[in-house]
Amino acid sequence: MKVSDFSIRKYIYLKDRYKDAGTKYCFDVLTEKIIAGKLIKLACLRHLNDLIRSEKNTKDFPFFYSVDIAQGIINFAEVVPDVTTNRPLTLASFQKFIYVMEMAWRKRGTNGMRFKRSYISMSRTNSKTQIASTLADYNFLLGTPAYSREIVISSNTTSQIEQLYNYVSLTLEHLLNSRYFGAWKNEVIINSERAYMPKTKTRLFKLSADSKRGGDSSHPTLAIFDEYHLQTTTDFVDSLSSGNVQNSDATLIIISTAGNNPNVPMFKDYKAYTKMIVNDDDRKLDDVLFLCWEQDNDDEVWEPDTWIKSNPLLEVEAIHDKLMDGLLSERDSQASQGSLSKFLTKNMNRWQNSKDGAYLDLSIIQKSIIKHGDFNIDHRDVYIGFDASLASDDNAIAFAFPYMDGEQQKWHLYQHSFIPTKVAGGIQAKVEQDGLDYVSFEEQGWCDITKDRFGMINQDEVYEWVLTFVEKHDLNVKAMLYDAWGTGRFIRRLDENRENWLLIPVRQGTHSLSEPTKFLRDMFTAENVTMFDDGLMQAAFTNAVLKSDNNGIQVDKNKATQKIDIVDAMIDAVYEGMNYFDDWSNAPEEKTKSPFGNMSSDEINDYFKKDFSF
Known about the structure:
It contains 20 helices and 19 strands. By secondary structure, it is α/β, with parallel strands linked by helices. The strands form four sheets. Strands 5-6-7-4-8-9-3-10 form an eight-stranded mixed beta sheet, with helices on both faces. Helix 15 (about 460-470) crosses helix 16. The longest helix is centred in the middle third of the chain and has 20 residues, at about 315-335.
């Protein structure tokens, strides 16, 4: 689905039929009355298309949109008071859009909420707390089912959840003291831990991911998790949803800004949901709501007129100038300190790879990703890099394919890894230790987890895999590059059985690796690298940092568990591969008494033809 698919003529009848705040916001965005980024435009287009689908009333789309419920949540939100002034805040149109998308889409038959999971993301200081509080209070007081509702608000730490719960409970107290809900005042008990409504057996309480209690004992009909980008595993969030597998109406809402670590579950969700909304015609994940206000690219950090894309609160005239002045000051301050990536993450809602000395920016890595059908690896020249497993390290086989795209020299990268479990003590421990979902990566074909009962890598299996892969795809191996340490048996077998393969040991140090390290980084930066959507390789590139000495640079990692074996293998591959288009080689020449050195017969013939012709 493309934003360019929008035609006012196709959808105009919906504008007349659905006059709610959510649908109005969509038309304002798609007709550019409101500036918005690509992902919000796609979310708006998805809503309009879903309205059309809902009117067809088919089994493959069992949802409907209730204008009455949409107006109900807006009526409620408009009387929710600000905790500091105890006066209702004027709602921005994007806030109304969030509320009605979340609450007004329903399931046919049960009238339950359509979305099992919601991902709502925007920059800091754009009313995320207010939105979370309003949704929590609404579902506590007026939600479904009528009895035994359980509302959980959660975050990463006790201090974070205390701030959110204080906001939610104070807002609730103000509501119960207002003329709108004053009659309910004696029906609700509020203390520092929870709010409880005995008559309907409904409760609202707080949980933090760092508490011993966890979420396994809860059965929330609605769970809200704040600042999910800081979670390194899905364990806590999974515990919130696992207790409600039989409740088809249970909902989990993630409200968070982007983060600076792309190797976390939220970034994985971000990528999956972006793919979902771009490919909306595939009709996958119809029970997921994805609303992400972000800048379309990092360069927009210098274009303040576009900042409403990630800071939708800028639409409110009363606070526009104050918010914009603050953003400009913060940008200039972070830029002067060389920390612009912090501003991009927190204030532009752009995911970053913010490690000190990061080898590659996250945006550069993401730009290199292409679809499987866009590159065929069969029948091509290839350079292979091999990084052997030592203790807890992964075995990585890297493939660098040089190719021409018109007149542009490019490289396609591919890899396959072999995952040991000996040191970690099992695959689940390995997953938790490295923060990488190896089981999922194996299912996708990017790695093999060792089946050895001792958890070790069998180098003979690696050897057989490489030969099978090369033969299957009819590859012309220009060279196999390797670190001689720990690769003896593997290389000896290749030397014995593949005499036509050029085998080149690569000395591991900045003196040898500086040039190929720079070469690969420059190719990425110039957008001359492509690779498939391989999460394992992307994680390796985001983990890699640079270290330097008097001889140059090479990649390294901040922690032993931050795997970069694939990057090491790839740099080995381009150690020789970078000379492909220049017809030069790093391969050491074997000693010979011939005056023509190691020149081939054809090269000797060419020598005489060129230099002794008359």
